[in-house]
Amino acid sequence: MRNLWNVTIKDMLIVGKDRGAWIFLLITPLIVITVASFALGPAFEGGSIEAELLLADEDGGAVSSGLVEAFRKNENVVVVDAGRGECEALEKDGQEYEVALVIPAGFSGAVEAGGRAELEVFVDPNSNITRPFLVSVIQGTASRLSAVEVAAKVSVLEVMKVAPGADAAAVAGTAAAAAASELEDEPVQAAISNVGGVEDLNPFDTQAPGYSVMFMLFGVMTAAEGLLLERESGTLGRLLVAPVSRASILGGKLLAQFAIAILQITLLFTVGHFVFGMNLGNSIAGLALMIVVTAWTATAFGILLASMVKTRRQLSAVGILSVLLMSALGGSWWPLDIVPEFMRQLGHLTINAWALDGLNDLILRGKGLDAVLPEAGVLLAYGAVCFIIGIRMFRFRSVS
Amino acid sequence: MAVTPPEIDDMPDPIVIADNLEKRFDGLTAVDGVSFTIREGQIFGLLGPNGAGKSTTISMLSTYLRPTAGDASIDGLSIGREADAIKKIIGVVPQDIALYPTLTAMQNLRFYGKIYGLGGSHLESRCRELLELMELWERRDDRVEEFSGGMKRRVNMAAGLLHHPRFLLLDEPTVGVDPQSREHIFETIFRIRDSGTTILYTSHYMEEVELLCDFITIIDRGRVIAAGTLRELLKILGEGGVIELEIAGGECPGGLTARLEGHASVTAVKQEKNRLLISSDNSAHSLPPVMRELEAAGCEVASLELYSPNLEKLFIHLTGRELRE
Ligand SMILES: Nc1ncnc2c1ncn2[C@@H]1O[C@H](COP(=O)(O)OP(=O)(O)OP(=O)(O)O)[C@@H](O)[C@H]1O
Ligand SMILES: [Mg+2]
Fold it and tell me: I need a labelling partner for B51 at 20 to 30 A (CA). Which of A45, A246, A248, A286 fits?
């Protein structure tokens, strides 16, 4: 039991030191949620924010122009054209603007080539009235580019499975276009059809739970990868010849993952509430219960994933596909209220659907703890089944 | 570094007994009936080429793999039935670095120390002691991923030493290490031995085993092909040295080997194609009669080499193959 705790502490330490993991667990979801919420508009309509953005486009390519266009279209952003010198000067004190964006030369080329493309953002360190807003708009708009790309890749993967001869580039193009239009259209429709009757609804309320559950699942997927990495790199084997039981090793790792998943979604909701005015409903106990049982089910799903594959490569293929499928079917991207009945039933095979039924009851409909007990019960049982199958099937030694 | 292993007069007690260990992976017998005895305080060398079965043997002794047949005991505990008790008294330094790359040297050692039941100020001082021994104390707060290969090896080794194991299994701890680090690792191994730990050391470098080990077992293709102290092993080649000859133009005539063996000072003759390995009590004495025999047989000598016996030559003598292929 003491060793279980030692393993947990070690894993938390590893994740704690991993800046990339935190960006993935917290920043990425915040950006995506922000973008999805902005797509809905109403929250920032009525001139609630009007922020000036200094912008230098040194690239002038197709992608950068699209990006500039996107900023100009944003009603809450006033684009002020500038040169690099002015933008860089922002870092010094006493400037009129708070945020400047430089799109460096070669940006469009890098995005099109699927490489690493970077934007340069300069901020005035001494003033932050519009800074958080502008930075999130920049991150959100830019992340949309990569989100579209991810969706395209997954579609290609699927198509390649059924038809190895298919023209991957052509499919990717079509898929990216489809994904892009989906990103723009779907959430708008979805949210509008869902908001009837609820007053003062913040788009964050409708978007944050769905994306948070999706990113929690992505989070446990990386944790499952961490487990396989331990197996592949030999540290798991090293632990097997040390005086620590298998139950402690696995239990410790799962406990760490469980705690991280709870922390992740709690932080997302906290930021949503205090920064973006997200409504958290009327029952903190109900919310806490839903967060804990969802984290439990996600963690159990992670060990199930890890036990079904042999390598990390397989895990990312199976993992990304299943998380995206579950998110689409389970209502993470649009409410299940708008899909046909049989799709709604199919959707309830996923963790997302049950978690969101509960979370939406609390957040959108203002219900209490009692209302979410059935969903919590289903998730507990769902997690237990995944957990039992997962720990039984997991192989501690590499499969050669 | 001229370190001669101490002579063992009265034999210390056995601590490890391997009895016909066998491990089959489907279709392949990696370890094929290996037996040996390791005595308290020894540095026991397991020498063999790549794929000989060294790591597989270590994996069975450390309870990671279950033998297909045979058994072994460590300090009277059976590896099959008393694995949990064995894990507490052995230290394992695996061939592949088993550290968490993003944690610091200190964090890695602290974690492994806790797993072995250490804690508090004792754990801290033990970590410090070992990092100082490994000359890495200044780098204690750096991530292991920023270390060189040799530095990682040293931390990997420290992780196996934290709990003062009675029996330490070192699987090729010098692979990919520069000569300086290697020297340092050797010194450390002698120090650990002097503090009372018995050591199993595997390597495919004969020089290392010659230098370090009190007792050497050579394995090849899963089988023990020779075992003894360095002196005993080299005696197989003859005390006086080896004459290696290459005959010009194809094979040596039949019967030549037997005639060479007839000479009093020659202890053994091994022939592969046009190569002759002649072991003798005294190569200088044996050389003239050997040359006369060759002349009488009408063989022309293409090359000639005289050397004192070593494990590399012994391996060729026993298997007809080089140790490093
Ligand atoms: N898990 C396994 N599954 C199948 N075959 C294996 C496995 N582990 C080892 N082998 C095989 O067993 C044989 C012995 O391997 P082992 O690792 O014990 O050799 P070694 O003496 O340690 O070699 P090296 O010096 O390269 O480390 C090899 O042929 C290897 O391919
Ligand atoms: Mg090996």
Answer: A246
ipTM of the shown complex: 0.84
Both A231 and A361 in a single domain? yes
- Torsion over CA: B249, B255, B258, B263 (sign): negative
The total number of structural domains that make up chain B: 2
* Per-residue CA distances from A395 to A88, A236, A307, A312, B269 (Å): 54, 11, 7, 14, 52
Q: Which of B28, B57, B88, B100 to mutate to test the interface with A (most CBs of A within 10 A)?
A: B100
> Is residue A400 one of the residues assigned to a domain?
no
Q: Which domain holds residue A289?
A: 2-42+202-393
Q: Which amino acid is at B88?
A: K
Pairing of strands A120-123, B90-93: unpaired
pTM of the model: 0.73
* Span A216-238, pLDDT tens digits: 999 999 889 999 999 999 999 99
A118 part of a folded domain: yes
The answer to whether residues A355 and A256 belong to one domain is: yes
**Which residue's alpha carbon is at the smallest distance from atom 8 of ligand 1?**
B56
**SS3 for B283?**
helix
For residue range B173-191, what is the model confidence (pLDDT) as tens digits? 988 788 888 888 999 999 9
